[in-house]
Amino acid sequence: MGDDRLILALDQGTTSSRSIAFGRDGRPVASAQLPFEQQFPSPGHVTHDPEAIWGSQLAVAQEVVRQVGGAERIAAIGIANQRETAIVWDRSTGEPIADAIVWQSRITAPACERLRAAGHEALFRERTGLPLDAYFSGPKIAHILDAVPGARSRAERGQLAFGTVDSFLLWRLTGGTAAGGAVHATDVSNASRTLLFDIHRLAWDEELLDLVRVPAALLPEVRPSSWAFGETAAEIFGRPIPITALAGDQQAATFGQACFQPGQAKNTYGTGAFLLLNTGAVPRASANGLLTTVGWQLASGGPATYALEGSVFSAGSAVQWLRDGLHAVERAGDVEALAGSVPDTGGVFLVPAFTGLGAPYWDPNARGTITGITRGTGLAEIARATLESIAFQVADVLDAMAADSGERLAVLRVDGGAATNNLLIQLQADVLGVPVERPVVAETTALGAAYLAGLAIGYWNGLDDIAANWALDRRFEPSISADRRAALLHGWRRAVHRSRGWIEPA
Ligand code: ADP
Q: Relative to the CA of 331, which of 6, 116, 146, 348 has its CA 20 to 30 Å away?
């Protein structure tokens, strides 16, 4: 194709909306970003105004289209989104009936606890690959229906629509109202985070819908991630543009990292750390505290690609704490020089269990600890121990993945804001004993959405085309002995042990 058009990725994140236009070489050509407001209505509850999500995302998309010279330059749009965030809107007006309940919100913890107490956890695990946790979107829908007067009966009459952020943006982009031809759909990766979706049959599950008390009439159609979902309403960009991909952000990043083969994995170092391991066409149940999730399904049909996922709650946020809590550094980027000013931590271990520990420990009562402090310990040692703690936590999740999948990783691909820290990534290779590779294009989430969208229209010919675009920025080889690695991990596990169960039950 003598086609110099671009693919526009919309990356709707938790704290900001981003748009990036990519060319056929997978390099960004233009981008724009806008933050939006985080709302905290009560302790542990987090909401977003859906209009703020829409307004910021629309503005950055229009800005990028303007930068590249107009809608005729854009061959297709792909959307990657913050996952599990739930929105319910009125089909006739397109207006949300409540604020979006954000994935971080714990407001549905009691509802999940009730389902667990009633003995349903094993059923949910088996069908959805997920534990009964407030993180996921299904119970958030029920919460909105119960909180808004009249909503449940309107939902049962088919007057309301539910969507995660991908569906809401698709609805708004394709017309905004039922009369305006708006499309109500989601993709398998987003559906797999609801607790309502059977990841084996790739279909909504009536029994789970009943248990969570979500009327089926609310739900979007579930499609492959790479699919002709619809076209943007002409007035949005001046002419219609096809929307041909939807995917949850972490799955999109895994796709953007070209982890197409079973056994390939990526880690994103942001506020937390998110690891996904491609397990191929078979969902692997976890015996080690990981989630089983749908990675993606391509338009060509065929089976979905599944992944094991593990999340670390505090990664980059531990560096924020060094900066804002300890005033050890002025900017997050300065931590590399401070930590690099000493050859080791002098036996200090830091466990950043600020909000408990995630995979594979799942200990909400753990709290942060610093162990092994002596008179020789200074901020440099603490800073180095903080970076090491990020690497250790990732190593723990990868161990769990190896135990669940029976495969040892050959190489780890990394991205995210903290992955620019060379010392952190070297420490990661050291504690894993596995090489770590950082690609040139760090915006892997947006890139994954663009790849999925481009595949649907033949802009890229196949996965090989895309894999060939993956370009190495830097490869980090393990540089310590097996004995040293074992000693470090031993010290880390002793420190984790001391951090656990710190909060005593009331
Ligand atoms: P998110 O998408 O979760 O908002 P980003 O991918 O933007 O996160 O990464 C930001 C996080 O990375 C922050 O928590 C910050 O403290 C951390 N960070 C940024 N630069 C560095 C650095 N050079 N070294 C270590 N951590 C860093």
A: 348
How does pLDDT run across 65-108, given as a tens digit for each residue? 999 999 999 999 999 999 999 999 999 999 999 999 999 888 99
Residue 176 near ligand 1, beta carbon < 6 Å: no
Query: Whose Cα sits closest to atom 13 in ligand 1?
Result: 316
What's the pTM?
A: 0.92
Residue 1: its pLDDT value, please? 47
Does one domain contain both 205 and 233? yes
Both 243 and 284 in one domain: the answer is no
Same domain, 162 and 53: yes
CB proximity list for 301: less than 8 A, separation 6 or greater: 224
244 lines ligand 1 (CB under 6 A): no
Asked, for residue 184, whether it belongs to a domain, the answer is yes
User: How many domains does one find in the chain?
Assistant: 2
The CB density around residue 298, as the number of other CB atoms within 10 Å, is 20
**470: nearest Cα among 16, 25, 120, 19:** 25
CA distance 259 to 316: 23
Condensed to tens digits (0 to 9), the pLDDT of residues 229-251 reads 999 999 999 999 999 999 999 99
Say if CB 72 and CB 239 are below 8 A apart: yes
Q: Is residue 149 part of a domain?
A: yes
**Helix, strand or coil for residue 399?**
helix
Parts of the chain with a pLDDT under 50: 1-2
Please classify residue 343 by burial: count the beta carbons closer than 10 Å to its beta carbon, then call 0-12 exposed, 13-18 middle and 19+ buried: exposed
CB of residue 340 inside a 6 A radius of ligand 1: no
Quick one: 105 and 240 in the same domain? yes
Domain that holds residue 433: 257-439+471-506
Q: Is 506 exposed, middle or buried (0-12, 13-18, 19+ CB in 10 A)?
A: exposed
Closest among 120, 104, 101, 102 to 112, alpha carbons compared? 120
Ligand 1 atom index nearest CA of 13: 2
pLDDT at position 300 is 65
Residue 460 lies in a domain: no
What pLDDT, on a 0 to 100 scale, did the predictor assign at position 388? 98
Distance in Å, CA 389 to ligand 1 centroid = 15
Q: What is the CATH number of the domain that holds 90?
A: 3.30.420.40
Same domain, yes or no: 205 and 351: no
Query: In this structure, is residue 475 part of a structural domain?
Result: yes
Residue of 83, 421, 438 best suited for mutating to test ligand 1, as the one with most atoms within 8 Å of CB:
421
Distance (Å) from CA 315 to ligand 1 centroid: 8
Residue 301, pLDDT score: 67
